[in-house]
Amino acid sequence: MSVLGTFDLSIGGQPRRGLPHGSQRLLAFLALRDRSVTRTAIAGTLWPEASEEHAQASLRSALSRLTEVERTLVRVTLHEVALAADVIVDIRDARLLAHRLLGPEATLDGDVGARAIEALSVELLPDWYDDWAVIEAEEWRQLRLHALDVLAEKLTAAGRYADATSAALAAVRAEPLRETAHAILIQVFLAEGNRAEAFSAYERYRTMLKDELALEPTPRIEALVRNIQHP
Amino acid sequence: MPLHHSGLLIIRAWVEPGSTRPLRAHLRFSTDVAEGFDREVTLANVEDVSSVVEDWLRGILEPPSPK
């Protein structure tokens, strides 16, 4: 199941199309939890404006509209619902990766490359506006931004400049006016000895900051490029 | 036309230490979530953020535009 970008579901390698919206929301909600959730909590979260009775009925409807094959994705008891243990969810892997990168003893395993950067670059269900989805999306955004920062720094330290540049650019795209991301991008270019690109990155940030907020970069970022003002 | 509509406003704020105006507030909002987010902006003044929030609330009070 995928909730990064758009909602997608495949069972046994076969894409499942036409899942009712309520069932999609239920599966996505369960995908974002790593445990069983009470029916009351699910109903109250997914249908917050309905009465408890109607919300519970909507939950029963969402479950009943799953096909027999789709029902294998969930474990349903009298009081709780959970995603089946063998369901693979992209956000879970991506969160694990982010937490691993942010851990005190994080190392760059072989799998931390282009695919990891791609996973950390994708928003969570960006076109969903339910309260719970928006909150989850914001939490993921914060987590992935910090993970991308750390990843870019670690890749730079390892001399993997191309991947480091990709990670830093992904962080810049996610929050274009966040200075830390620009500072890291500049540091990647400086570390690989590419002073012209470092200065170009600084200039792009400075221009954007001036156009959008009528501000100048901070002394911290000015200090990075002080010696390459005229490369 | 629906009887009511729901607006949504997300403010993500952070501080850029060392800046002459260190506040950064990124606002993403819609006066009718059925239409998705219709605007986003980043601001650096508390007053500007307050003004946008007030305008957004006034927009919520207006009837939805006809489809």
Q: Mind explaining what this structure looks like?
A:
- With 231 residues, chain A is mostly helical.
- Chain A folds into two domains: 10-83, Arc Repressor Mutant, subunit A (Orthogonal Bundle); 90-228, Alpha Horseshoe (Serine Threonine Protein Phosphatase 5, Tetratricopeptide repeat).
- Chain A has helices at 21-31, 39-46, 52-64, 68-71, 90-102, 114-120, 131-157, 161-174, 179-191, 195-213, 219-225; strands at 10-11, 14-15, 37-38, 74-76, 80-83.
- Chain A has a three-stranded antiparallel β-sheet. A two-stranded antiparallel sheet of chain A has the order 1-2.
- The longest helix of chain A has 27 residues, at 131-157.
- With 67 residues, chain B is α+β, with helices and mostly antiparallel strands.
- Chain B has one domain (8-61).
- In chain B, 24% of the residues lie in helices and 31% in strands.
- Chain B is built from one helix and three strands; from the N terminus they run E-E-E-H.
- Chain B has a three-stranded antiparallel β-sheet with strand order 1-2-3, covered by helices on one side.
- The longest helix of chain B has 16 residues, at 46-61.
- The model of chain B has no long low-confidence stretch (mean pLDDT 86).
- The chains are: A mainly alpha (231), B alpha+beta (67).
- Chains A and B meet through helix 7 of A and strand 1 and strand 2 of B.
The tally of structural domains of chain A comes to 2
User: From the coordinates shown, what is the CATH architecture of the largest domain in chain A?
Assistant: Alpha Horseshoe
Q: Residue ranges of chain A: pLDDT <50 for 5 or more in a row?
A: none
Strand elements of chain A, count: 5
Low-pLDDT regions of chain B: none
User: For this entry, what is the oligomeric state of its chains?
Assistant: heterodimer
Structural class of chain A: mainly alpha
Strand order of the largest sheet of chain A: 3-5-4
The CATH superfamily of the largest domain in chain A is known as Tetratricopeptide repeat domain
